[in-house]
Write the structure tokens for this entry.
Amino acid sequence: MSVFFYALPSLIIVAVLFMAARTVRRSLELRSAWNSGLTAEARCLRSYTTVSGGANDTSVTTTLHHVYEFTTRDGRLIRFEEANGRSTVVEGDIVPAYYTAQHPEKATAQAPSQARAAAGTLGMLVFCGVIVSFCIGFMITYHEALSSVDGFFGSSGGFFGGSDSFFEG
């Protein structure tokens, strides 16, 4: 039963660290695309929304997605999808796409905003840090509580400690 109190927080920590790594990776991709100096006119091919949540009286989250297509300077046709784009962009609109020569498929149509991207990344990392700290604190507290109970009852679980019987002389 004790394994559960260590395994579940450990799994949560792994998932949160994975989420933090993805956040940092996407932030670096955006920064690279904005700083590369490469831009192209991208056409919005499609926009759609996805809805999540709403079950058991939870809040509903709607995410706006756009699918863009552009041609790189070397003539390659690139199509990419981006979530949380501007709601004013509709199918057929032309927007600037920022990309790197090495990975044009990781382009973005978001306007360069280093400060906003850094603030978003920092906020997500702080959130992840709070969750990891809580899980580690939970495991430490559980371990200490388990140790103090073992110390009170003894290693064999007897009330008076030790392996001696109450009736032994």
User: Anything to note?
Assistant: The first strand starts at residue 38 and ends at 53.
